[in-house]
Fold each of these.
Amino acid sequence: MLRNNGTVTSSLLMSLDVLLSTSVCLGLLLWPEVSGLTDPFGQGGIAMLVVALTGCLVWPITFGQLDVYGSVRTAQSGEVARRLILAGLVNATILGALAFVTNVPLSRGFPFVCAAAQGLVLSAARFSLYGMLRTARRFGRNTRNVLIVGSGPRAAQVKRNIDAHPGWGLKVLGFVDDVDTPVDPSLFAAKLFRIEHMPVLLGDLVVDQVIVACPRSMLGSIGPVLRSCSSAGVPLTLLTDLFGDFLPTPRLGHLGSRPSLEFAMVHHNSVLLGVKRVIDIVGASLALLALSPVMLAAAFMIWREDRGSIFFKQTRCGLNGRPFQMLKLRTMCVDAEARKADLAELNEMDGPVFKCKRDPRITRVGGFLRRFSLDEVPQFWNVLLGEMSLVGPRPPVPEEVVHYEISERRRLSMRPGITCIWQVSGRNEIGFEEWVKLDLQYIDSWGLGLDARVLARTLPAVLFAKGAH
């Protein structure tokens, strides 16, 4: 039944999620040791009702955005767990922000305890259900019949993958290919069909899925397969290694009204990027307010030392190389840029980056500001403008970017930040090659949790001036 009623199954799962999340949320609200309240709805009023409803209903909405309700028949457990953890982080942030805005008299840790408890219960229920389904499939229940287009090495590899995962519940009905195409030796005993017979096969057999695993040279001849599957309403899966073994994972997108495959090394979730942007705006606003006295004092000292400009504007490369004017408190003499070429021999950094520990252009006040990274404070304004983020790879100058290798340009594939892994790992004590490696590590493994860890390590790095000069 589940095979033919995927929508019904998703609806049942969504109902189960609402039931479980509501039970956990209400249970914790009525637990005084957790909520800090003896009568939460009496003490919190309408605001408490809004927070409670959000805590109950936000999970299925977030799950829908993260495609948790999609089929996980062939998905890896790690990928499912990643989506569930992301949902938990998003929901904890939403619930915490709502509790703060509505000023409900809940304990400060309640939103996070509630989200963690709900996440654990929903995850346990899900993995228990997935385990039961995989067990059932191993015994021949809840199976799907597939046809594989191709009969060469790629098709044989797909067959081996299916045989190695009986929990997927996939049964190979046969292979569809051209007449003159060489057949992989491991498939000599398999059922082979001709491509032109595809409409008849879909009419005579129970086919739940068609997997295209033919060589690239055969793409021009699989038109009948696509048309037949479309007409019969049978899902077709195209393995993207058809275009090469080293291409990144694609994502379905649209160019106007036309569907497209978008290839990128990393596909960051748009919902989480939106949360990151909200955190940037709130964090930068609070930082500018809190550090405004420091800014005023620093500005006076800079002006008093040489009567020069207070701020230093420099063109930097932002997201995908887009130029912007980055703000800093001026820490060098007024003609620092003009003197940079004369100091090239003092550069202590490998690669295209210029760094000098005892740069003669740095002023006395500038040395103090640099030591504690106070010269970076104006960049919170760049964050508010959307040119930078609180956390991200440091923005390079165009003169450095022109010397980048093509692989090093991937540093620009994410919005630059005020702090980053390099910043909290020693800064100028780290060579350029290791710097790039740390930035790419951040991009490839980015998540809200990683941003939180980098921010937590930034304050000690600033206070102890680790690697600063």
Amino acid sequence: MTEEKSKKSQVDKTMETAVNMGLFSKSLANKVTIITSMNQFAFKLFRVFASRHQRDSKNMCFSPLEVFNSLVMLLIGAKGATELQLEDMLCLREFNQQARYDELIDLIKWIIKSNHEIMVYGTVIYLDHRLNLNPEYLEKLKSIFEIKPKRIDFSGIDNVIYMINKDAYEMTDGIIEGVINRKDLQDDSQKVNLVISNAVFFRGYWLFKFGNIHKEQFYYSEGMKSANIDMMSHIGYHRYYYDKQLQAQTVSIAYVASDIRMVLIMPDQIRNEAITLVEYLNSDKLLQLFWNLQNQPKSLTELTIPRFALEAHKVSLQKSVKQMGARSIYDPEKADLSGICSNGRVHLTKLVHKAFILVDERGSHQYTKKAHETGRFARQQIENVKGASNTREQSDKVTVHFKANHPFVFLILDKITGVVCFCGVFADPTEILEVVPEHELSNEQITQLLAESDQKTFMEDASIDSTSSNV
């Protein structure tokens, strides 16, 4: 226990140093512990997921921030051993006090509300309608997360499944569905009294639009397989850093009108699986990576990445949560969530999570001209360099080439706080959804796609930013 406290103290100290050195906003200095806890939990969960998927090399995509918040919703109603287990898993200590609630409230407002246009979160707590919910618990949920539990009759499982999936579909504007099925609730319906559903969707506009959409080989399964997929390129100024410890290239890509950044981490060698990098990622390593990226001068970069829509399979978090140490919340006899209700025992039956991320070429309307001019200037710089020397070595001193043509880790984080909002691994290009330009579809196809509630193809608005194509 002393060793754990010492380690946590060191992590907090590292975070405080980062704030003092200007990596993150000084206005967040009093929230250092919460930020550290969020990211420690994020990478713990990432490693657990990776350990379960390492052999099958599947794509991964989830929001550790929303899983963290969902488990905090239980923590504020937990007592005894259950409270201690949740605190340990979430890397929080002595959380159930008003000062800590206030820290989390401010942080959630900063991250989610300031980026609501590109991140859509749909989390709902479903509780048995026979339970008398404690007013204090309801007030905490409202003040911290601005939500109210839905009271439901779990005896009609088909109706429960329909309601949960309908809520997820509507809260994500029709993007996510099927977050739960009958198999998830096959236990005796009388024992089901608490379900939490996460449906999260990310779709942002790049600060500068990608152009030059083309087909290119993507190598996967340790370089033994390849697939011809849509890639998109951009020539501009980006922050690039080579990490010797990870033996990986990293690049930071900005989104417009927000403080969100996508950080790509790609192994040097095509035969090296990106999922193995997850073992080396933690809160300290993220700070180090982000610090190095932020302090690199922007390099003239030829950036090529896949264009894709990635819908992760629905994740039931029971095995992962138990593996991370919070076992009692799922046990009808041992769960102590007495802060939630005053009549009867409550335990978590299911925490289900489904995420969707769209990565395409679109930039912002207001940055169309700027992106076009910057791209033209960047191309001229490259031509000047190539004209001055015929050697690739001298050319590469000015231009960084980042081509994501083999598996990579991606992190979507808030630049101001450093909190990881989404993360995942792009490992298998055959398991992605196709992004089809609207101009390639007939009117009948467009009508059909819009009418299908289970659509699997996502259209891009071809009218956006056409002047800066082929950058």
Amino acid sequence: MKEGKFVHRFIPNSVEGIEREILELIGIKDTEEFFKSIPMEMRLKRRLNLPYFPSEFELQRYCESILNTNVSTKDIVCFLGAGIYDHYIPAVVKEIIKRAEFLTSYTPYQPEVSQGMLQALFEYQSMICELTGMEYANCSLYDGSTALAEACRMSIRVNGKKKIMVPKFINPERLQVLRTYIEPLEAKILTYNQRLEDGQVDLKDIEEKLDDETSCLYLEQPSYFGYLEENLEEISDIIHKRDALFIVSVDPISLGIFREPSSYGADIVVGEGQSLGLPMNYGGPLLGILAAKGDKLLRQMPGRIVGMTTTQDNQFIAFCNVLQTREQHIRRERATSNICTNEALMAVAAAVFLALLGPKGLKELAEVILAKTNYAIKRLSEIKGLKVPFFNSVHFKEFLINFEKDVYDVHRELLKRKIHGGKIVKEDFPELGDSSLFCVTEVIDKEKIDKLALTLEEVMRN
């Protein structure tokens, strides 16, 4: 410390001589010039109230004391889903993505030194296509929300129309991202109705709202509330009669037992791939799935597509980027997206996860989740004061519970007993009343479901 100036051994420019040399080199008098665009009334006029400068050991112990206040799914029974899910991740998934050639790999611009990463991404694309029935998939996007937004922008570029139709019970976070992405295009978002009794799409409503200016219709299967739409072919026919595109969001694990989107006419498939071997990580990084079919959409795909070729002497199989529509390349202002370095490592993790399970393993996993979902619904529906499920439809992994009591009070009582009672949806969907979205995956066993049921019986009685 010199004349009130803090000197840090790991920050070179905190030393006066070095700082002066840097300032002279860039041609300014002092560091205040960096902040001159910030109004004085917006600036802090005192020193930061920081603790004394601790040793490394003391700092580590202090940070650990803060971290120890966190609560994880190992400490409580967690029924929270709504986009991020607690699935079991095989140890080999973590082990493989820790390898330096994957963990430290950057965008594979040079195929001659990136064959490992390129092949892993090619395998990811191939498995996504096999799951969805689509003809091609990109190397992944940031998350399910940006995948939806990019899909809608693709649709607008292809048919030139600027009306997007979304379901009434859409994931609200995805809707926020979609609005942000299409705002510069001056496109409109219209909401189509879903029946309150069973959540199914109101076919008459979409027939009336779909017109020649509609670019695409978006559907979530399963829905945000976990139930399955039944009238898929009818919806697809209505959409395509107006020359609009059908965008479907899927839970990739559900495709182990449910129909692939191509079988009912989907043009673009999107989804959140976090369930495929990625931890919850406080909400990220995630994995955006985007796949499509048809020549018109191919050139409008954002990001990259990896293809298989051969070496120049035709002796060996090789892999390279066959489509790169980013603005950093020759496309420039004609680029389809400004996506840059997305979390391709997450796509590698998903590829490892899917390869480990295979079609049979994925089917078994989906069957286990479906069975546990059904058991939870049956067990909880016996409790007085609950409506389970809220929607009278088939559910997968998630379902809505409506309470005769204040949902926030119920949630607090569950937390006191070390149970997380899902996501409260009252603010996003006031018409659903005191309701909360519960999630059941393969890590939730019968004992945990029974514990939830017994606890809710007690809470609803008192």
